[in-house]
């Protein structure tokens, strides 16, 4: 493996870490309703647990209300039960075959808990990025030790990897700041 390969795979993995971080941020609840809020809910479907989105259509009715429309009539009660028993604090109500899920406004205390959760997710993503930097630098050091690269190449590589790391950490900081602002907006 060459230094260029190491840099490329490191940057690819860092991009994947950012993508995973964005997904995790999307699961953190804000004051507004979003269809992604219910992604983590599992429903029993013919003896196995499946995500709610595989047995029902989830959409927004307005900024504070979600609608869940099961594809099979017998799934309505199971979907409603799964939403109620999730730890999201939601209380769905059934209107025929449509389930309305009003999203209550969050208290100030709950908003602060959510911003802490967002910061913890950000710290986890930063740790993942730093670990990738360390792995890349270790791989380059091994190439130098095996005399497949020079020490000048190692210094240049470490500098390049540090720039990529700094760019990804700055992106994480921007994402978490935007999420905190979204959570704290009343």
UniProtKB/TrEMBL annotation:
GO terms for cellular component: cytosol. GO terms for molecular function: ribosomal large subunit binding. Pfam families: RRF (PF01765). Residues 21-184 form the Ribosome recycling factor domain. Signal peptide: none annotated. GO terms for biological process: cytoplasmic translational termination. Keywords: Cytoplasm, Protein biosynthesis. Its main location: cytoplasm. Transmembrane segments: none annotated. It is found in: Cytoplasm. It comes from the Bacteria. Coiled coil: none annotated. PANTHER family: MITOCHONDRIAL RIBOSOME RECYCLING FACTOR PSEUDO 1 (PTHR20982:SF3), RIBOSOME RECYCLING FACTOR (PTHR20982). Belongs to the RRF family. Responsible for the release of ribosomes from messenger RNA at the termination of protein biosynthesis. May increase the efficiency of translation by recycling ribosomes from one round of translation to another. This is Ribosome-recycling factor. It comes from Comamonas antarctica.
